């Protein structure tokens, strides 16, 4: 299968992301670079490796030009380890990750759950704030409005709600107020 290449701009048009998404016989891998002109101006590289069911097995984030990295691994069932293989019990139950700097991570639950129109699901994610590289467990809800086209995203611990548009691969096209696809 050919790699999928996507690019996003942040809503203001000052930051950009480049993603290469590849499928192999045993994994789905996302490699991305984000250049942010927002809070603190930074560049970051990330790699997310999923099994063929879109369950995250590895997440790595690195700030470019700074010796700061985060590495998390998962069994795909909601149990996480840090880079030294220490259990991260605070993340128990989180199957997906949510990287604050990219709309790509919305694809993970969208593809993994394959919700039908009018279906919704409450999930927990390992929320990774970048550039801070902090991780917390975050409750979220996804509701399918139109399969592989429109979803309602809700943060369950705040009043943040957005209706996001996706392409046929489940990649975000429009995330109002945050991101828009440019390629």
Describe this structure in words.
This protein has 183 residues and is mainly beta. The chain contains one helix and 14 strands, in the order ββββββββαββββββ. A 14-stranded mixed β-sheet has the order 7-6-5-4-3-2-1-14-13-12-11-10-9-8, with helices on one face. It is globular.
Brief description of this entry?
This protein has 183 residues and is mainly beta.
Strand and helix layout:
Layout: E1 4-10, E2 16-23, E3 28-36, E4 42-50, E5 56-63, E6 68-74, E7 80-81, E8 96-99, H1 107-113, E9 120-129, E10 134-146, E11 150-155, E12 161-166, E13 172-175, E14 179-181
Parallel strand pairs: 8-9
Antiparallel strand pairs: 1-2, 1-14, 2-3, 3-4, 4-5, 5-6, 6-7, 9-10, 10-11, 11-12, 12-13, 13-14
Helix proportion of residues, in percent?
A: under 10%
Structure classification = mainly beta
Largest sheet: 14 strands, mixed
Head-to-tail CA distance between termini: 19 Å
Figure out the total of helices: 1
What is the average per-residue confidence, as pLDDT, rounded to a whole number?
96
- How much of the sequence is in beta strands? over 45%
